[in-house]
Every structure is written in structure tokens, then in C-alpha cells.
Amino acid sequence: MWRFIKPSRRNLRAWQLVLLAVLFLVWHLLTVPGLLPHFLFSDDNQAAFFFGQPLKIFDRIVHWFFIDADIYKHLAVTLWETILAFGIGTVLGLGMGLWLALSPLAAAMLDPYIKALNAMPRVILAPIFAVWFGLGVASKVALGVTLVFFIVFFNVYQGVKEVSPVILANARMLGASRRQLLRHVYLPSATSWVFSSLHTSVGLAFVGAVVGEYLGSAQGVGYLILQAEGSFDIDTVMAGILVLTVFALVLDALVGRAEKALMKWQPQAGESEKL
Amino acid sequence: MSPPALSLEGVSCTFAAREGAPVFTAVRDVTLAVAAGEFVAVVGPTGCGKSTLLNMAAGLLEPSTGGVRVFGEPLAGLNRRAGYMFQAESLMPWRTALGNVMAGLSFRGASEADARALAAQWLQRVGLAAFGDRYPHQLSGGMRKRVSLAQTLVLDPDIILMDEPFSALDVQTRQLMENEVLELWQGLPVSSAATARPAGPGPAAAGSGASRVARKAVLFITHDLDEAIALSDRVVILSAGPGSRVVGEFRIDLARPRDVAEVRTDPRFVELHKAIWDVLREEVLAGYQQQLAKA
């Protein structure tokens, strides 16, 4: 019997689910008023007030998705903002990274500005973007772009700098023009670096969208959370957080898929070494 | 008499001083000519600037003094009539074997279909017809060298520069590859490659004029004397660096076609080996002493 239950590679998934169930169970036991004698708070209802109750949270989520079915438009907005921020940030970062890596003079000139912009806490720009672009999608995208851009930029810059000089010389001897070098050597080499940063940058695009919504908007999951918080509705806040978490996991899995499909020229671990 | 395919005329190469390191002269006043269709091997102790010499012949590196001529024309920029096989891994890891062989053709403006057909033909000639869709990391070291060879030869260059191309291979694979190189060099069917060649701009088209040569001129760099004698028409010995010079030159009058394994037992081979080694040994010892002094 123990042989089957004992944690191993085979039943890893089952154990992960058990862990999740236990977490929710403990949460449930500690927060439902009157179920256990209160030991931390002075009142039976306070635990539920501060931490929410799992059953009510699930009830909220079911209402969102199935009964009222009113979360889809908010999710769509958040997702759309994430995708736009991710796309625009990646393209800008890629272009800028390629340009600066290939023209050292421009890189040297802009170096302190890039460092300064990167060091600045960019979330603080959200109010400015709200003034510039209004409370709609654009201001959230702008915030997400500032987060994604630097991740991609630094990775591309590094990627281009570290192209093997032998591969480069070989391509030149084979007759590649400057443009062809860019397209067939620098870009593929930089792409592998971009992909290694993709998980981080998708996450940050998501952060940009939600934080932007939270700081001022009329729709989106961040807006839902803000509304609930305004009325001390902790259950709805927790429900929003859970939905966002699941969504972030889905996005990450999608990126993993794309990476696998596009990076098939890279050796997998255990197959061979990276050249 | 037609001008040599490649001639280095009194070239020196001095690398600018980097912080802390003094000015370094890798090669000093080297004069070396490779006739069209000739196979020349350059041997020398480690660190004697052999690769520097080749990079100058390829136009990747500009000589500090002297000049390089290609078929009599002074070389400016890259040497468009030369193919270069590097010592290190030079395949693009994001392209398949076939894609790598096609690369040069498509860079030079060949159509996708032409490039694919010619590249497939060359992959077959190096024995990798079944491996066209593999990525470099999925191939063995020897296979990657074959792909590199096909990648270089598919462009039908008039001059082939080889920088210790097989030094990373094990002895058996190495002999196989050496024989293959000799075979391909001796029997390159220029006409068939020429008809299949795309009518694109660049050196491939330039080579099909009246000065068309059947055999390629090869400049082969190695530190292995056996390999040098077995393959070449002429062995050139460089002195220990820095500031390497040519210190000896031997004509290899062994009959062709040769088998690199069999030719080593030829009495003439042994004789040549001894004569060249007598010159080379002093340079190797000198190079070794310098490395010890530096350490």
C-alpha cells in the first residue's frame, strides 16, 4: 500500500493536488466562523473578514464564470492588455537590442540613460501614463511595455554580443551581406536569448496590466479586485487573485509550448551539450 | 605563366597593444605562394601564427605590412574566391545540416530550389544524405566536419583555406576525412558543378571564365607533420612565434593518388619526414622554451 502512496515521479501530480486540497482545507477550518474556537482574533468573524473563506471564494468564482458569466469581458481586457504589452515590448526590445549591440558608439552614448531608466521603479509611471493615455487599455499597455522592454532588450543585447566569432566569420566567408548576417546569424542567436527571458517577460506584461488596472480603470480583473477591496469584500479579492494566478500559469504554459516548437535546434538537457 | 592562385607578399601582422599586454607581432615578413591547383601545407609549432596567416589570406584580417594577391589581383576586403574551413565549430546551430550547406548558395542569391538540390547533392558526396534534417548538435564531431566540408565546397571556390580542420577528431575519423578531402580535391568534377551552379552574382560566376582550373588551390594549416606530408604537394615550415617566418620549404614528390594511411610506409615519405622534422624540431623546441619562459 505504502509503495503506491510514497511520493515518487509517478504520482507527483497526485501529491501536488493533495497538497492543494490540504491547503484549502486548513484555510477553511481556520476561517469559517464558529467552526474552531478563535485563538488569534477576539471575535469569531474576524478570521473570515481578514482572510476570506474558501467556500465563498469558490462560490464567487462559479458565479463569475458560470452563473452570472460576467468575468469574461474583464478577463478579455486584461488578456488583451497583456498580449499588447508583451508584443510591443518584445518588438521594441528586439529592435533596440539589435541596433545598440551592432553600433557600439550609440550604445556607449545611450548607456547611462538605459541604466537610469532600468533602475527607475517603473510602476511609479502608472499615474503619468493614466494622465497621458487615459483610463483605458493604452495606459496599461504602456506600463507593461516599460516592464517587458528592458528584459528583452538586455537579453538581445547580450545575445548579439555573444554570437560565436567563428560562426560569424564563417557566414561572412560564405558570402553573407550585412543584412543577411543580421537576418541569419544575429537574429537567430538573439532569439534563443529572448526565449530564455520570455517566461519572465510574459509574467511582467501581466503584472503591468493588472497593476495598471488596479491603479485606475473601468474594466479588467484588476478593476474587479479594486472594487471589491473598496467594500472590504475579501472573498472577491481572493477570488480575483486565484483567477489571475491560474491565468498566469496558463500563459506560462503557452510560452513553454511556443519555445519548444521554435527552439527545436537547441539541444535538450541530456541529449547533447550546447555549442 | 599565370599568376598564383594565392600569394602572400611580405605580410606581417601586428596586434595592437591591449591594456597590460605589449604589442604582439604574430607573423613577420612571410612570403608564400600557392599555385592554382596546388596543395600547400603549412606546419609550425603551436602559437606560431598559422591561423593569423590564414585569416589574412581570407581577408578577415588585414596585414600590417605587405599584401595579399588573389590570381594576381590585390585583395581588398574578403577573399571572394576562397572557401574557409575553420578549426572550431562553425556551423550555424539553428540550421539543419542541409540548411547549413545551402547557406552560402542562398547568401549569394541562388534560388531556394537550386540551392536545395545542389546542397543535397553535396551532402550525399560527403556521405550524409540521410542526415540533411539533423541539427548540428545531433551530429557527431566527424559528421559536423563533413557538413563544414560540403558547406565550403558547394560554393565551388578556387581556393580552399583549411585551418587544422580535423584536429578535434579521433585518429581513425581523421584518416577517413583526410582521404575524403584528397579524393574530393583530386576528382572535383568541375563541369557538373558548373552546370548546376546558379547564375547568381559573386565569385561562383566569376570563376567560370577562361582561367577555370580543374583542381582547387589548397592552403592547409596543421601542426601534424604526417598529415601535412601525406596530403600536400609542398610543405612550408613556420618558425616559432612571435614574429614567425618561413624557415623551410619541401616539395613532396610522392605519387598521387595517395592513401594517407598507406603512404606513411613509403620509404620516400619516411625520408621526407626525417628531413622536415630536422628543421621543425628546433622550432618546436624553441616554441616550447618560450612557453615555459612565459609561464
What does this molecule look like?
The complex is a heterodimer of chains A (275) and B (295). Chain A has 275 residues and is mainly alpha-helical. Chain A has twelve helices and no strands. Chain A has helices at residues 2-5, 12-31, 46-51, 54-67, 72-102, 104-119, 126-133, 137-161, 165-173, 178-215, 221-230, 234-262. Chain A is globular. Chain A starts with a helix and ends in a 13-residue tail after the last helix. Chain B has a domain at 6-81 and 159-170 and 215-294: 3-Layer(aba) Sandwich (Rossmann fold). Chain B is built from nine helices and ten strands. Chain B has helices spanning 50-58, 97-107, 112-125, 141-153, 171-186, 190-196, 203-206, 225-231, 267-294, and strands at 6-15, 24-34, 39-43, 65-70, 73-74, 82-85, 159-163, 217-222, 234-238, 246-251. In chain B, the strands form two sheets. In chain B, strands 6-7-8-3-9-10 form a six-stranded mixed beta sheet, with helices on both faces. Chain B has a four-stranded antiparallel beta sheet with strand order 2-1-4-5, with helices on one face. In chain B, strand 1 (6-15) and strand 2 (24-34) form a beta hairpin. The A-B interface holds A 164, 166-167, 169-177, 180, 184-185, 188-189, 192, 264-267, 271-275 and B 58, 60, 78, 80, 82-84, 86, 88-96, 103-104, 107-108, 135-138, 151, 155, 202-203.
